[in-house]
Structure formats: structure tokens, C-alpha cells
Amino acid sequence: MTASADAAHLAQLNVATLLHPLDDPRIAPFVEMLESINTLADGTPGFVWRLVEEGAADATALRPAGENVIVNLTVWESPEALWDFTYRSGHLEAMRRRREWFERHVEAHLVLWWVPAGHLPTVGEALERLADLRANGPSPRAFTFASSYTAAEAAQHLQAVPQRQP
After folding, report:
1. What long-range pairs does 140-148 form, CB within 8 A, spacing at least 24?
2. DUF3291 domain: which residues (predicted)?
3. How far apart (Å, rounded) are the C-alpha atoms in residues 11 and 102?
4. What pLDDT, in 10s, does the model give residues 25-67?
5. Maximum Cα–Cα distance for the chain, whole Å?
């Protein structure tokens, strides 16, 4: 990855612990929103990619972080594009209602990191970044909106510091 903004995209992982199984009627309003939210994301300027289960429209059946934990893994052209989708679109309604469906997290549940443009992160890579954030706090390697770093800072950091193990 170079310092050029055009050479890097922003990866995002969000994990959410369900209060009830995904097929429980109390989670139905969330499930009903999924298709429209995913369609909205897919059409948002700056959207690059999102994880979906093979043969499915979303990733809710994938449970790499635990049986009751769903994951959302996406790639965006910029932090602004992700921010606009998250907080300035119809996605905000789902955010406002999240306590109806998900447990309150006591540790980091969202991690951001820079990837080379064209790279699609794996779930393992994403979970490792989340573990790094939880263990070491924000850094150019794993950060949040509140503690963000530029692609250039991340590239410089990765050249100067050997990768940490969570």
C-alpha cells in the first residue's frame, strides 16, 4: 500500500450479539430491513464490497465470532463514504433501533483499517484487526471513527512497526 489515497480503501468490521435467534419474531423487524439496507449500501457512492455468504444475499448465517454474533464486513473508498452511509442514510434507522435486537457491547465492536485498493479482506483478517483494537487500543493498524488514521499514516506505520499479535 502506498500513501496515495487512490491506492487504499477503508475496510470495516462490525460485530453484533443478537438478543434472540435470528428467526425469533422479536428480531423480525431487523431481518425485514436487511434487504433494503444492503441494497442501499450497494448503491451508495464510495461503496466497494460487502461480505455475503455464498448463495445468499447477506452474511447473517456466517457466525465466525460466535453462534449468537453476526458480522458485517465491508470495504469503502473513503471514511466519508462509510460515514455518510452509516449516519446520513436510511441505515440510521437501523442504528437507532439496534438496542431492540442486539446486546450492548462492553468492548470494541467496530474496527476500521486501510487495505490496498482491490484487496477484499477475509473474515479472519477482520477479526484479527478487531482483536488488535481490543488488546492494544486504536492505532494506524486498527482504529475507529473517533480515533481515525489516514491511509498514509497506516502505510507509514506498517513500514516502521512489525505486525503485532493480539
Report:
1. 140/114, 141/113, 142/111, 142/112, 142/113, 143/111, 143/112, 143/113, 144/108, 144/110, 144/111, 144/112, 145/79, 145/83, 145/110, 145/112, 148/79, 148/112
2. 10-147
3. 22
4. 999 999 999 999 999 999 999 999 999 999 999 999 999 999 9
5. 50
Dump the DSSP string for 28-90. HHHHHHHHHHHHHHHHSTTEEEE---TTSSSSTT--TT-TTEEEEEEEES-HHHHHHHHHSST
Query: DSSP code of 25?
Result: G
pTM of the model: 0.90
As to burial, measured by CB atoms within 10 angstroms (0-12 exposed, 13-18 middle, 19+ buried), residue 82 is buried
Residue 165 has pLDDT above 90, yes or no: no
Domains of the chain (ranges plus CATH)? 5-160 (3.30.70.100)
Residue 3's pLDDT is what? 40
Inter-residue contact 38 to 153 (CB < 8 Å): no
Phi (first) and psi of residue 70, to 5 degrees:
-100, 155
Choose among 118, 154, 119: nearest CA to 3: 154
At residue 130, φ and ψ (nearest 5 deg) are -65, -45
3-state helix vs strand vs coil in the chain, percent to 5: 40, 20, 40
Cell, residue 65:
465470532
